[in-house]
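Why do we bother with a discrete structure alphabet at all? Because it lets us treat a fold like text: something you can write down, compare, and reason about line by line. To make this less abstract, here is a complete entry for ASTRA-associated protein 1. Read it the way you would read a sentence in a foreign language you are learning: slowly, and without expecting to understand everything at once.
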Amino acid sequence: MIVTKNSISSISNPIYPKYIFRGHEEQIMSLEFDENNSYILSGDSGGTIIIWDLITKRPIIKFKGHTKGILRVTLFHDKLISHGRDNFIHVWKLNQYLKNLKINELKPFCEESKLNPENSLFINSASFCKFDLYCKEGIEQEEILVAIPRYCMALKLFPISQPNNYLMLASYENGSVVLWSITINQIDTSSKDDNNKRIVIDQLWNCKEHVETLGLDISVDKKFAISTAGDNKIVKYTFDENYQNEPIIKSTILKHSGIADVKIRSDGKIFATAGWDAKFDS
């Protein structure tokens, strides 16, 4: 479901999709906008991944990424990264394919492609929690952060103004959304050894609005977040300037249950939801 900025601001009122994308045959579990808002990615419970063109509203790539359901798909630079319930994180190189693709060459229906991952990482996906990806400025390598199995369903890690300070927004299967403060202190300032660091984690607030959470996303400006769940609620959390106090919470009740994932567009004006009905709305 794509929703306008005014609808997000008044999410307590009924919301209606601007456009419904149909192309999956099974429950959609993950959604992600690309950084330029040109494409949107979706992954379903059968392991299929589709990249959609947001201008034509048509799929341009469709392929079987995993043998089991998709937990998350995301684009990072020239790569697509997918996480499945088959205990693998795959890295796919797509830049050349997208670069050579012309809209006027697209067929009315997207045929399923056969792609091979560039790299793969075996990881325990028993809890079905989704990874988060964060690249620290000033280093060339990318770090993929994976939620600890069992209780955490989704997480978002982001830096704040103070050096070596981070915030982590996490959603849990008991329905709670929790904001954590992470501080990394150097014990001996003369040493750069990683074992010389002390990590302090504090809970800033805990809000329980769902029966169990499934999807979580935060706006690019880090001013608000939206959560979805197996129930029929979409909840918006508006943060204060310092993130110290509990957020302002607004929620809306849907006519159907089961929203597996949510993604907010980079301008904060639109968000998309992935439903158990094999559709995603925007």
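What the structure line is telling us, in plain words: Residues 5-281 form a domain with the Methylamine Dehydrogenase; Chain H fold (CATH 2.130.10.10). The chain has one domain: 5-281.
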